[in-house]
C-alpha cells in the first residue's frame, strides 16, 4: 500500500556551516519504512554531521527534518529518541563499570513503558535479544564484554526505547568479520519488522551486501542516489571520490634517486590491541613524495607514528639510508634526520603556551644549549631565520604560539620539521583545518623539500591532496597497502575502489 | 581604526594571558582586595568595624622596626614552600607534600647541628642547609620516582607522604633526638654556631630571608634559562607534544620533585637554625598549605611568590597583634587568607572565559590570516 506514511524520514535542504567549513550544503535524504539506506562517502563528506543533525546533537542552519510525514524540530538526542530515532555511535557511549541492564536503563524516560528495575529489565532484554539475535547477559559488566557484545548492548539500548529508525555510524569498523555478519543478520530482521536503518559507511562491500538504497555524499553535497542492483561498485567509487581530476602539482624536478626510507613487512598494533598496520612494505626515494591515501583509521597514522619512533613495531624493519632507524625513541629518529609533521599539531606538534622561538627548538634542544643552560642568542637567531624563510606571521619570536592563526601555527611545525628532516619528512594531514592559502603554502614547502632531494612520506585522507602533490600514490586499506601507482597512471576510480576496501582489478 | 582595534586586542590579550605579568598582577591584586572586603563583611557580622580592624592590622604590622622585621622573618619560609609548589606546578605537577619535606628538612638540619656542635659556624651552617635540602629533596624525589616508575598520582603520594614524614619527625623528637631532660617531645637547643646570624639585631629578621630570595632567583634561572626548565615547562603545558619531541617525562618528574622538595627542605633549615633554634614536635603545621596559596596567588612565578609571601607575612604579624589586643577572633586571618585564595582560583576561571571570548571575537572579526 503506497501512502505518504511509508516515508519514515526525510531531510530537506539541510545546510550546516562550521567556522571555515561547509559541512552540509543543501543535502536531501529520505528513507522508507522497511528499508536499509546506506550513506556512502569519504571522510569529510558530511555523513556524520548530517546524522548528528538528525539525532539532535547539532542544529541545522537551514533545512527541515520530517519524521513519519510530520516536520519536527529535534533539539536534543532526547527529542530524537522520543521520535523513535536511535543512534549507534562509532565510539560506544556505555559506562564500562556498569552492567548491561544498568546501561540500558540509564536515562530511561519513565513514559517509555519499559521496566527500569533490574529484574524487569533483564527479562525484557532477554526477550528482545532472542527476538533479534542479540543475546547479551543482562547482568554482565560492560567492561568484560567483547567489542561486538558492547555493540549489541548499544543496539539493545536503542531497541529498549522502541526506536523505529536506527542510525549506525561505521558500525563494522570495530567488528570482526563474524561479528559483522551477525550485525547484518540483525539489521535484516529489524528491517523485516518494518523499521528503517541508516547505515553510514565508506566500505563498498558492505553497501553492496546490505543496502536497499544508496545515497552518496561528497564534499557535503548529495552526489547520487541509487537503488541496489542498478549501480556498479565502480560507479559508486567514482561518485564517492569525484570524477574530476584534481589540479596537478609541479612535477618532480629531478628523477627519483636511491631509496631513503625503506619499510619492510611492518606490523603495528593500534589503540585497541589489534593490528592496525599489517605487513606494510614500501620505499620512498630521494626526491620523491610518496602519498598514502585512504580513509582515516586504516592504519596510516599508526604507520607514521611507528616510523617516527612513537609506536611500537611488532614486526618488520624500518631503514633510513640503509641503516635501521632507532625504535621507540622519537628524539633519536629526529636526530637521524627524519622530520615529522603530526596529524594533530595542537596536541602533538606544539606547546601552544610556549613562544614561537621555544617551539622552533622543541625537538632539538641539545643543539641550543650548553651545559644545561639554554643558548638564548642561538635560539633567537634560529627563530628569526625560520620566521623569515617560512613567512610566519606575526614575525615575533617571543609571541605565544597560541596567539598565532592555525596556518601560522602549522608553519611553525613545518619549519621545525622540514629543517630537521634532512633526509626524510613524514607529514600526516599537513593541511587539515587550514584555509586554501595556508594549505598551498604548506604544499609548496613540502614540494621544495622534495626538490632538494629529500624523501617525503605524505599521509592524507584527502585524495586530491595526495594525488596533486605526490610522485607516487599508495592506497592503504585495512592496515595493508592495497596498491601503489606512479602518479601518471593513478586512476581515481581504481583508487576509490581500493580506498573503499575493494581489491581493484586493473584496467 | 585597525590600529585602535589592535591596541584594544593587545590590552585584552595581555590581561588574559595566563602567563602574563600584567594579568597576574591585576588579578592577584583584585583577589586580595576582594578577600579583604569579604573578610570585612564577616567582621561586620561579628560586630567589628572592618575599617578599624584593617587600620589596626596595618598599623601594628608596620608599627616599629621589630614588627616590620618580623614580616621578613615570617615571609622567608613561606617563600620557600611557595616555591616548592610553584616549581612543580610549572611542570604541571602538584607537590602537596611541602609540609612533610619541610619537616624532614628541619629535623635533618637539627640533627646535623646537634651532631657537629664543635664545627665552626662557616662550616656548620652550609652543612645544615645542604642536609636540609638533601632530606627535603630526596623525600620529594620519592614522589617523583613513584610517579615515573608506577604512574602513581603525585598529588596523592605527596600528600600522604606528609603523614609519614610527620610520623618520622615524631619518632625522632621522641627518641634519638629528644632533649637531654627527656621532658617534652623536642630537641635540645642547638649550638649557637649553627644559628643563622641576625640581619637586624634585636629582631627575628635573619639572613635566611636572603637565602630564600636567592632560592627564588635560582628557581627563576632554572625555569627560564636551563634545559631542565624548558623541558619541564613543555611537559607541564603539553605532555603529549613533549613526548613527541622526545622529552623523557619520567626524568622530568623525578628532577622536578627533587628540586621542589629541596626548596621545602630548605625552609626547615631557615625555621630551625634561624628562628626556633630547636625542633619542637609539630611546629609550623600550616607552612606547606600556606605555600600552596602563596604560589597560586603569585601566579607560580618566583617574583610573585616572594611578593605574596611578604603579604602573608604582614597579615600574620598584623593579624596576630590585632587578635591579641582585641576581641576579634584569631581565625579571621585564616578566613581572610582563605578568601584571597578562593578569589585567585576564581580569577583563573574568569581569565579563561575572557580569553575565549576575545579569541571568538577576533575570529568573528577577521578570521584567520594565512
TrEMBL record, chain B:
CDD domains: TM_PBP1_transp_TpRbsC_like. GO terms for molecular function: transmembrane transporter activity. It is a multi-pass membrane protein. Its main location: membrane. The chain crosses the membrane at residues 21-46, 66-89, 101-118, 124-146, 155-173, 205-224, 252-272, 292-315, 327-350. Keywords: Cell membrane, Membrane, Transmembrane, Transmembrane helix. It is found in: Cell membrane. One of its GO terms (cellular component) is plasma membrane. InterPro entries: ABC_transp_permease (IPR001851). PANTHER family: ABC TRANSPORTER, PERMEASE PROTEIN, GUANOSINE ABC TRANSPORTER PERMEASE PROTEIN NUPP. This is ABC transporter permease. The lineage of its organism: unclassified sequences, metagenomes, ecological metagenomes.
Amino acid at each position: 500500500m503506497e501512502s505518504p506514511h511509508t516515508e519514515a524520514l526525510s531531510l530537506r535542504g539541510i545546510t550546516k556551516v562550521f567556522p571555515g567549513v561547509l559541512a552540509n550544503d543543501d543535502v536531501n535524504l529520505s528513507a522508507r519504512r522497511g528499508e536499509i539506506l546506506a550513506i556512502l562517502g569519504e571522510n569529510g563528506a558530511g555523513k556524520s554531521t548530517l546524522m548528528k543533525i538528525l539525532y539532535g546533537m547539532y542544529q541545522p542552519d537551514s533545512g527541515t527534518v520530517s519524521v513519519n510525514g510530520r516536520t519536527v524540530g529535534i533539539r536534543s538526542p532526547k527529542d530524537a529518541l522520543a521520535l523513535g530515532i536511535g543512534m549507534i555511535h562509532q565510539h560506544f557511549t556505555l559506562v564500562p563499570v556498569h552492567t548491561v541492564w544498568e546501561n540500558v536503563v540509564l536515562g530511561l524516560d519513565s513514559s517509555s513503558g519499559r521496566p527500569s528495575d533490574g529484574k524487569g529489565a533483564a527479562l525484557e532484554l532477554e526477550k528482545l535479544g532472542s527476538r533479534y539475535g542479540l543475546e547479551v547477559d543482562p547482568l554482565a559488566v560492560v567492561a568484560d564484554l567483547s567489542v561486538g557484545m558492547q555493540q549489541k548492548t548499544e543496539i539493545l539500548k536503542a531497541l529498549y526505547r522502541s526506536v523505529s529508525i536506527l542510525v549506525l555510524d561505521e558500525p563494522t569498523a570495530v567488528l570482526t568479520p563474524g561479528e559483522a555478519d551477525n550485525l547484518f543478520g540483525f539489521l535484516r530482521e529489524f528491517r523485516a519488522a518494518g523499521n528503517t536503518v541508516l547505515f553510514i559507511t565508506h566500505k563498498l562491500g558492505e553497501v553492496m551486501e546490505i543496502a536497499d538504497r544508496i545515497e552518496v555524499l561528497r564534499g557535503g553535497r548529495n552526489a547520487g542516489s541509487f537503488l541496489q542492483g542498478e549501480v556498479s561498485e565502480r560507479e559508486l567509487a567514482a561518485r564517492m571520490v569525484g570524477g574530476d581530476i584534481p589540479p596537478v602539482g609541479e612535477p618532480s624536478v629531478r628523477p627519483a634517486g636511491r631509496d631513503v626510507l625503506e619499510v619492510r613487512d611492518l606490523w603495528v598494533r593500534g589503540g585497541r590491541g589489534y593490528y592496525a598496520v599489517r605487513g606494510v612494505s614500501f620505499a620512498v626515494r630521494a626526491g620523491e613524495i610518496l602519498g598514502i591515501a585512504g580513509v582515516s583509521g586504516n592504519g596510516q597514522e599508526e604507520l607514521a607514528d611507528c616510523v617516527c619512533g612513537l609506536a611500537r613495531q611488532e614486526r618488520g624493519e624500518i631503514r633510513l639510508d640503509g641503516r635501521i632507524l632507532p625504535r621507540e625513541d622519537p628524539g633519536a629518529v629526529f636526530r637521524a634526520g627524519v622530520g615529522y609533521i603530526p596529524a594533530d599539531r595542537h596536541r602533538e606538534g606544539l606547546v601552544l603556551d610556549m613562544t614561537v622561538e621555544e617551539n622552533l627548538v622543541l625537538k632539538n634542544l641539545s643543539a641550543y644549549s650548553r651545559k644545561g643552560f639554554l643558548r638564548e642568542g642561538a635560539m633567537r637567531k634560529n627563530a628569526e631565520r625560520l620566521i623569515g624563510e617560512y613567512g610566519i606571521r606575526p614575525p615575533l619570536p617571543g609571541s605565544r604560539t597560541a596567539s598565532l592563526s592555525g596556518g601560522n601555527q602549522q608553519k611553525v611545525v613545518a619549519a621545525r620539521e622540514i629543517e630537521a628532516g634532512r633526509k626524510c619528512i613524514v607529514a600526516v594531514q599537513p593541511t587539515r583545518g587550514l584555509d586554501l592559502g595556508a594549505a598551498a603554502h604548506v604544499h609548496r614547502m613540502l614540494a621544495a623539500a622534495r626538490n632538494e632531494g629529500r624523501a617525503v612520506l605524505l599521509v592524507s585522507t584527502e585524495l586530491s591532496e595526495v594525488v596533486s602533490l605526490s610522485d607516487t600514490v599508495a592506497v592503504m586499506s585495512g592496515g595493508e597497502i592495497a596498491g601503489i601507482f606512479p602518479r601518471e597512471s593513478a586512476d581515481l576510480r581504481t583508487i576509490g575502489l581500493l580506498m573503499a576496501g575493494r581489491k581493484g582489478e586493473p584496467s | 581604526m585597525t590600529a585602535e582595534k589592535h591596541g584594544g586586542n593587545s590590552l585584552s590579550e595581555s590581561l588574559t594571558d595566563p602567563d602574563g605579568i600584567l594579568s597576574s598582577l591585576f588579578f592577584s591584586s583584585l583577589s586580595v582586595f576582594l578577600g579583604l572586603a569579604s573578610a570585612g563583611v564577616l567582621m561586620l557580622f561579628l560586630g567589628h568595624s572592618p575599617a578599624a580592624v584593617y587600620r589596626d592590622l596595618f598599623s601594628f604590622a608596620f608599627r616599629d622596626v621589630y614588627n616590620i622585621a618580623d614580616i621578613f622573618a615570617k615571609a622567608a619560609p613561606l617563600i620557600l614552600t611557595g616555591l616548592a609548589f610553584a616549581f612543580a606546578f610549572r611542570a604541571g605537577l602538584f607537590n602537596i607534600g611541602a609540609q612533610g619535606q619541610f619537616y624532614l628538612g628541619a629535623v635533618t638540619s637539627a640533627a646535623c647541628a646537634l651532631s657537629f656542635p664543635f664545627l665552626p659556624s662557616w662550616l656548620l651552617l652550609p652543612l645544615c642547609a645542604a642536609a636540609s635540602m638533601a632530606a627535603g629533596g630526596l623525600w620529594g624525589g620519592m614522589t617523583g620516582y613513584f610517579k615515573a616508575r608506577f604512574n602513581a598520582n603525585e598529588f596523592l603520594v605527596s600528600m600522604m607522604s606528609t603523614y609519614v614524614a610527620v610520623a618520622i619527625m615524631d619518632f625522632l623528637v621522641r627518641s634519638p633526638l629528644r632533649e637531654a631532660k627527656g621532658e617534652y617531645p623536642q630537641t635540645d637547643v642547638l649550638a649557637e654556631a649553627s644559628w643563622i646570624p641576625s640581619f637586624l639585631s634585636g629582631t627575628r629578621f635573619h639572613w635566611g630571608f636572603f637565602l630564600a630570595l636567592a632560592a627564588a632567583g635560582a628557581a627563576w634561572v632554572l625555569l627560564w634559562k636551563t634545559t631542565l626548565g624548558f623541558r619541564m615547562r613543555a611537559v607541564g603545558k603539553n605532555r603529549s607534544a613533549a613526548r613527541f619531541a622526545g622529552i623523557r617525562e619520567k626524568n622530568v618528574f623525578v628532577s622536578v620533585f627533587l628540586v621542589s622538595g629541596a626548596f621545602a627542605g630548605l625552609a626547615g633549615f631557615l625555621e630551625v637554625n634561624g628562628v626556633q633554634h630547636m625542633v619542637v614536635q609539630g611546629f609550623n603545621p600550616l607552612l606547606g598549605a600556606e605555600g600552596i596559596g602563596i604560589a597560586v596567588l603569585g601566579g607560580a612565578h618566583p617574583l610573585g611568590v616572594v611578593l605574596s609571601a611578604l603579604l602573608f607575612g604582614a597579615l600574620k604579624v598584623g593579624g596576630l597583634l590585632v587578635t591579641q589586643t582585641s576581641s576579634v577572633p584569631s581565625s579571621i586571618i585564616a578566613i581572610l587568607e582563605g578568601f584571597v585564595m578562593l578569589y585567585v582560583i576564581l580569577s583563573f576561571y574568569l581569565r579563561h572565559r575572557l580569553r575565549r571570548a576575545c579569541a571568538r571575537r577576533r575570529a568573528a572579526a577577521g578570521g584567520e590570516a594565512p
